[in-house]
């Protein structure tokens, strides 16, 4: 039931419960924090590129769907919806605590942001892929949100640390693919924190914070 609900949330977001905003727009009251159910783009701080996936598989490693960063543009394949950790509920409109574990659901292909012990194709760090579907998810989809303060705020710089392998979601910004995803840069997982694994909430459909007992 929880996984099916996520599909509904994306539709509702576009209609009434959220606002479309850019990272530079003023943020109305109640939208200052990032919440469960929000569908957003994630900006790689070092390059200003957006976290991206599309139905192109890696030719090496796991052979799963590729995850990259690409330059800013009007691309629905940059949207990721926030969900609870594998096997755990994340109530719609619930604030995301710093240090909590989440999953990121790729809206375009209906797969989870995933990592595992395969080598990434270009930098030879740890591979990051898009994997599974609504009925298939495991702990390899879990990411710990590292940020300052109590909750993940819209203007925070954050890191995502893979729960199973303790590696950070990362991009050098230098390792570039050729066809069929020319110009896109490799995303991988990396052992040490650095400015190359910092991310920021950018454009998206942001759900307003909803207190637990709100009607």
TrEMBL record:
Residues 31-85, 93-148, 149-204 form the MIR domain. Pfam families: MIR. Residues 1-25 form the signal peptide. The keyword Coiled coil does not apply. Keywords: Glycosyltransferase, Repeat, Signal, Transferase. InterPro entries: MIR_dom_sf (IPR036300), MIR_motif (IPR016093). This is Mannosyltransferase. It comes from the Eukaryota. It comes from Salpingoeca rosetta (strain ATCC 50818 / BSB-021). One of its GO terms (molecular function) is glycosyltransferase activity. The keyword Cell membrane does not apply. Coiled coil: none annotated.
């Amino acid at each position: 039931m929880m996984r099916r609900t996520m599909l509904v949330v994306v539709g509702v977001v576009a209609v009434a419960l959220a606002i479309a905003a850019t990272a530079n727009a003023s943020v109305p009251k109640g939208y200052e924090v990032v919440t469960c159910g929000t569908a957003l783009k994630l900006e790689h701080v070092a390059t200003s590129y957006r976290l991206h996936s599309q139905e192109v598989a890696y030719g090496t490693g796991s052979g799963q769907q590729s995850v990259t960063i690409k330059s800013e543009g009007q691309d629905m394949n940059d949207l990721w919806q926030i969900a609870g950790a594998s096997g755990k509920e994340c109530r719609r409109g619930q604030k995301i605590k710093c240090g909590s574990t989440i999953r990121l659901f790729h809206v375009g292909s209906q797969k989870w942001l995933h990592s595992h012990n395969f080598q990434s194709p270009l930098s030879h760090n740890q591979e990051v892929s898009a994997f599974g579907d609504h009925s298939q998810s495991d702990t390899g989809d879990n990411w710990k949100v590292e940020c300052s303060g109590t909750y993940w705020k819209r203007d925070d710089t954050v890191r995502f640390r893979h729960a199973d392998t303790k590696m950070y979601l990362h991009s050098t910004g230098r390792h570039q693919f050729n066809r069929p995803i020319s110009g896109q840069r490799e995303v991988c997982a990396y052992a040490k924190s650095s400015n190359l694994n910092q991310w920021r909430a950018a454009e998206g459909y942001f759900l307003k914070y909803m207190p637990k007992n709100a009607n």
